[in-house]
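Quick one from the shared queue. A colleague (R.T.) flagged Holin as missing a structural entry in our internal table.

Convert sequence to structure tokens.
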Amino acid sequence: MIIDYWTRFGSSPLWVGISFAITMAMFTYLTAKIDWRMSVEGSHREYMASTIMKTLCLPLFGAFVFDVALDVFTQQWLGVLIDGYLAYTMHRDWQHIKDNDDWWKGRGTKLKKKLRSMFTSSSPATAGAGA
């Protein structure tokens, strides 16, 4: 049984909104990728483009993988091919820009230090109890 997914749900306001959001995120990602390719290494322009690319890469990868699953479910093989290729390029770009300097670099270490200092510091009420 072939499910006619697109005629049933394709024109719903929710699907139109999701499609618009993915399209705008992809356009922003591609613009940042062009900026990243044209910028000088170590410049502020490359730093900003890397930050935008790394921020949008994972959500777009998830959206394309979900879209591949929907296309497999509805047996639309051209959509599987196109969305699978886009998911592959997102993963390849993620691997390629992983080592670039951007806003996210070192955030995990800083967050870990902040949380450790919050939980290991003594509170004022217990500090005076031993004296």
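The radius of gyration is 22 Å.
Residues 8-119 form one domain.
Added to the table.
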